[in-house]
Design brief:
Layout (H helix, E strand, L loop, with lengths): L1 E5 L2 E5 L7 E2 L7 E6 L5 E6 L6 E6 L2 E6 L8 E5 L4 E6 L16 E6 L6 E4 L4 E5 L4 E5 L20 E5 L7 E2 L7 E6 L6 E5 L6 E5 L8 E2 L8
């Protein structure tokens, strides 16, 4: 089942197609839905109280529960597990963090039952994907380059990284192409991951494994449009 945003509300629809089901109905803007691992809940961002906050709602609909209250803009990016949600917000990075100062947000986590959010990572993790073992793959953000710029080679192109959910995290760089590697997602069977890369021209889907990420297999063959 796919969760998506349409006209500022959250809907779901079967992947095979059919009638969409509306889960939220509010004059505010609801967006960025993410599924819980057990497929029972959906987290999303909404500005119904001013700036974006993280809310959670049952897959069947009902009254959403507000989980964050900071005046910054918070957006859910993934469920860490069935009980905790990761969200991005530009609140207060750690003092020793200086890789990408300025407007890069941090990653925080909050319980699905609410409570005080805690800093999860000052390292900004874009497009994180988390497997059943708690391994996290994501692409980094090194600068202000337009995400839609094509074919550029520079020191700030995105790379794919691997880390874990524990407190003593180690970071492993999985990509080596000097251009854009981005939007990684774990394969459903747990055997490797898929990602987008411009290494053969325009953006195409590639498949690789953590054990041998340089031996990537190209899945799609688009030659002009990404």
């Amino acid at each position: 089942t796919i969760a998506f945003t349409y006209m500022g509300d959250i809907f779901t629809v079967q992947a095979s197609g059919g009638e969409a089901r509306q889960l939220t109905s509010n004059s505010a803007y609801d967006t960025a839905p993410v599924w819980s691992p057990d497929s029972k809940k959906i987290a999303f961002a909404s500005n119904r109280e001013g700036s974006n906050d993280v809310y959670i709602v049952s897959k069947e609909g009902g009254t959403p529960v507000r989980l964050t209250t900071n005046s910054a803009s918070e957006t859910p990016v993934a469920f860490l597990n069935d009980k905790e949600i990761l969200f991005s917000a530009n609140i207060l990075p750690e003092a020793e963090y200086g890789e990408f100062p300025g407007t890069a947000p941090q990653i925080y986590k909050v319980s699905i039952d609410g409570g005080r959010p805690v800093l999860f990572s000052s390292e900004y993790m874009e497009s994180p994907s988390i497997d059943k073992e708690g391994r996290i793959i994501y692409h980094d953000k090194k600068g202000y380059e337009d995400q839609w710029r094509k074919h550029h080679r520079s020191s700030i192109t995105r790379d794919i990284w691997l880390t874990t959910a524990g407190s003593n995290r180690k970071y492993t760089k999985l990509s080596s192409f000097e251009g854009e590697d981005r939007n990684p997602v774990w394969a459903a069977d747990g055997n490797g991951f898929y990602y987008l890369s411009e290494q053969n021209g325009t953006f195409n889907v590639f498949h690789a494994t953590v054990e041998n990420p340089t031996a990537a297999r190209q899945v799609t063959k688009h030659s002009k449009h990404p």
